[in-house]
Design brief:
Layout lengths: L9 H13 L1 E7 L5 E3 L1 H7 L10 H7 L7 H10 L4 E8 L5 E11 L8 E8 L1 H23 L2 E6 L5 E4 L9 H4 L4 H4 L5 H14 L3 E8 L5 E12 L5 E10 H5 L11 H11 L3 H8 L3 H9 L8 H13 L2 E4 L7 E4 L1
Length: about 325
């Protein structure tokens, strides 16, 4: 053993230093008597006071999260069968903090008999678990965004070779998409050359790729598709991979069209305010009587007989620099051009 400190207690100080730096603790467990020995690092890791708590499997079990309380029963059974144990579990410290612990244990046998003792190390992996959870959340968010946009997310190698699709819907899980997906099999032969040229140009210039082509469908037909991707670089500035999306252009044509309504009272008032026009000025420009304008500005839900006057007002205000916005969801709006 490498002793990093001098003096009578150099070995103990070395052990303590390693435990503090690596956030680890080690232990020994007598499988026959149930007695345990804990290092000082393990006491710190579990958040218990060595002056008031004795080392035992019972005390260890007390700090384990209720969801993982079955841990010791399973671990003991495996160790008695000469099976090494590697588990992750949660603990609750005396301060109430939740921590993730990785345990690795080895059974120790003497004279080729059944194991009578086990030794192990516990390591605080809370930071690792937090990073993993954040990564999973971000991945799920990206998948959700891709699903909302009806686009297929994909990852490709530095040379553009397709690695995998990340969010395939159930109706597209067939061999060409799942088992070794390849652009060669998915892109229509008639578009293969232009597709390769687009990739070659993007790789050479290290810029995003944007290409339209026909992609293979589950029934053997092809649908118009648009793919856009961007390179991801490593620390040395080399292309590490490409990430992108592929969009079925037929879906864009099938989207419900926005229903264009008549101008509302608030739109007319807001347009006049932006242009700083009076009712009289709007009347002069549009040919609609001032009294009619005031009535249309006061109440929504105009009748069919008002359609002609509203059309004149819209043409006039649009020509003056106002864009009127209509949506299937939400309220109508406007903006200056």
């Amino acid at each position: 053993m490498l002793v990093m400190f001098e003096g009578e207690f150099g070995a103990r100080q070395t052990q303590r230093f390693i435990e503090e730096m690596l956030h680890v603790g080690h232990w020994s467990w007598d499988l026959n008597s149930g007695a345990m020995e804990w290092s000082r690092g393990l006491y710190d890791l579990l958040g218990v006071d060595p002056s008031s708590v004795g080392a035992s499997s019972v005390e260890f079990d007390k700090v384990i999260h209720p969801d993982d309380r079955h841990f010791f029963a399973d671990a003991e059974q495996m160790l008695r069968q000469s099976i090494a144990v590697e588990r992750e579990f949660k603990i609750i410290s005396s301060s109430g903090r939740l921590r993730w612990i990785m345990l690795r244990a080895e059974p120790i046998a003497s004279n080729l008999r059944d194991p009578s003792r086990a030794v192990g190390i516990c390591h605080d992996i809370s930071r690792h678990r937090e990073d993993l959870l954040l990564l999973q959340q971000n991945e799920q968010r990206l998948r959700s965004i891709a699903q909302l946009s009806s686009a297929l997310s994909w990852v490709a190698k530095p040379d553009g070779a397709l690695i995998e699709f990340l969010n395939l819907p159930d109706n597209m899980r067939f061999a060409e998409f799942v088992i070794r997906p390849s652009w060669t099999r998915l892109v229509h032969p008639g578009d293969a050359e232009s597709f390769r040229e687009a990739w070659q140009k993007s790789i050479e210039t290290r810029q995003r790729i944007s290409v339209e082509y026909r992609m293979l469908a589950t029934d053997g037909s092809y649908f118009p598709c648009w793919s856009v991707g961007a390179p991801s670089f490593d620390a040395a500035g080399n292309i590490k991979e490409w990430v992108g999306i592929s969009r079925n252009l037929s879906d864009l044509n099938d989207r419900p069209q926005t229903k264009r309504g008549l101008l509302t009272a608030s739109q007319i008032r807001a347009a006049r305010a932006i242009l700083t026009w009076s009712v009289e000025r709007l009347s002069q420009e549009s040919g609609v009587r001032p009294g009619t304008i005031r009535r249309l500005e006061e109440f929504d839900g105009s009748s069919a007989s008002d359609a002609a006057d509203l059309a004149h007002l819209e043409v006039t205000l649009t020509s003056a620099g106002i864009d009127f916005l209509f949506s299937n969801e939400g309220k109508p709006g406007l903006r200056p051009r």
